[in-house]
Structures are given as C-alpha cells and as structure tokens.
Amino acid sequence: MTWDARSHTRVMIAALYAPFGVLHIVGSHGFLPIMPPVIPFPLQVVIFTGLCEIAGAAGLLIPQTRRLAGIMLALYALCVWPANIYHAFSGVPAPPLPSTWWYHGPRLLLQPLFIWAPLWASGVVNWPFRTAR
Fold first, then answer.
1. Which DSSP category does 39 fall into?
2. pTM
C-alpha cells in the first residue's frame, strides 16, 4: 500500500470519527441538548450516529468497503448539519462544547469540508485534484 494524500486523509478521518463515535455512545446524554426538537427518539438517534461514525471510520480503512463508507460518512455529515445549526442558533449550552461563535462559526463553515473529505479520501470524487489529460 502506498501512502499518498488520500491514505493519510482516510487515516485522519478514521482517527477523528472513531473516538467521536464512542463519545456519542458513552456520553450520549451530553449531545441531547443540541438535538433539534423535531427529531424523534433523540437518544436513540445520538447512539445511532455514534455507531455510524465508528462503522464509517472502520469502513474507510478497508479497501472493499471504502467507497461505501466514504459515501455514508458524507451523508452522515450532511444529516448532522441541522443539529450543528440548531446548536449554533438556539443558545442551548452543551458543555464541554463551547457556546461561542469562535466555535460555531468555523464549525458551520467547515461542514462542506466534512462532507467532501470522505468522498475524496475514498476515491468517490477527484475534485478539485483532477489530473490533466
């Protein structure tokens, strides 16, 4: 296996998502305040998102599941964006997460990167790094 930028990105994404997945499971009650009120079964959804993060992290590291994991992590990042928006604008405290725009602003602005990165790392997309023909 060659270690290129995609390989490093896959490992970095897995290293971020796996522990956050565990945190969503073992500390699930801490995430409940940032769940938009329209989400049914919020505790179960938080635990499910943790399982998705762990499965996605592992899937990125397995060549046979890499593409599917990249797609699913991108969809995951898209689906949790409303909770991030709700957290930013509701003013609901969720310690230990900061409640300042120094946290929320970059978090919301970087969400497209969190959607794109697993797609690129898994080889689903090449943009913007296409090779010249």
1. S
2. 0.89
